[in-house]
C-alpha cells in the first residue's frame, strides 16, 4: 500500500487512557451537547473545562453531568449509564428514560463518544456484540446514539489482545450504525473517516509508515487543520 508521508507524530509513546480522554475533551467544541458511552469515554468528563460550557447527557436521564464523583461526593442515586457515581453541575436536570431517548433520536446531541469492537474504513460501527457464543449482547442505546448524534467519536485501543487492528476494511461483527463514525481516537493515532478514506491526524509512539503496517486499510495524512 502506498501512503502519503508526513511528520505527524506528536508523542514518543502510545497514549494511556487518561491522556486519550484529555485529548478528546480538548477537541470537543465549546457549547456542545455530548453523550459519553460506557467504558473509556466516561473518562472524558474528568477533563472538560468550565470555559468550554459543555453539557453532558446521560442515557439514564440527566443533563448537566459533571466529573466522576469521589470520596464524600459519591451519591448512590446519582450515576451515569455505566453505573459510575458522578457529580452534577449547576442547572442539572433529570427526566424520564423515554425523554432521554427522544433527545438521542431527535438529533439534539452534537457529539457522542462511544467505544467499539470494530470501525470500518467507511465509518461503520460495531460495538455491541462480537458474535462469540459466550458473549453477552449489550446494544443499550448505542444504535440510537450512532444514528442520532451529529458526530460520532470512537475511543478504543487500536489493536485487539491478539494484535489485530480494530480499524478494518469491513466490519465482521454485527453493525451498530452505518457510515456514522467521523473520528477514531486510539492509543496509537487519531483517525478521521469519511468520503476521503481513512486519514491520520496524528500518531503516538509510531510513524505513519509503522502505523500502516498495523492497519489493513490505506492511510493518508490528514491536511493540517485547526482543531
Structure description:
The protein is an alpha/beta fold and 227 residues long. Helix content is 14%, strand content 27%. It has helices spanning 17-27, 97-105, 142-148, 208-212, and strands at residues 9-11, 33-36, 55-58, 62-68, 86-94, 111-114, 118-120, 125-126, 151-155, 167-168, 181-185, 189-192, 198-204, 219-221. Strands 1, 2, 3, 4, 5, 6, 9, 11, 12, 13 and 14 form an 11-stranded mixed beta sheet that branches. Strands 8-7-10 form a 3-stranded mixed beta sheet, with no helix packed on it. Helix 2 runs parallel beside helix 3. The protein is globular. The chain starts with 8 loop residues before the first strand and ends in a 6-residue tail after the last strand.
What is the gist of this entry?
The chain is α/β, with parallel strands linked by helices.
Features:
single chain, 227 residues, alpha/beta, 11-stranded mixed beta sheet, 14 strands, disordered N terminus
Order of helices and strands: EHEEEEHEEEHEEEEEHE
- State the low-pLDDT regions, or none: 1-6
Rough outline? globular
Count of DSSP helices? Answer: 4
Largest sheet: 11 strands, mixed
Question: What's the topology here?
Answer:
Blueprint: E1 9-11, H1 17-27, E2 33-36, E3 55-58, E4 62-68, E5 86-94, H2 97-105, E6 111-114, E7 118-120, E8 125-126, H3 142-148, E9 151-155, E10 167-168, E11 181-185, E12 189-192, E13 198-204, H4 208-212, E14 219-221
Parallel strand pairs: 1-13, 2-3, 2-6, 6-9, 7-10, 9-11, 13-14
Antiparallel strand pairs: 3-4, 4-5, 7-8, 11-12, 12-13
Helix pairs in contact: 2-3
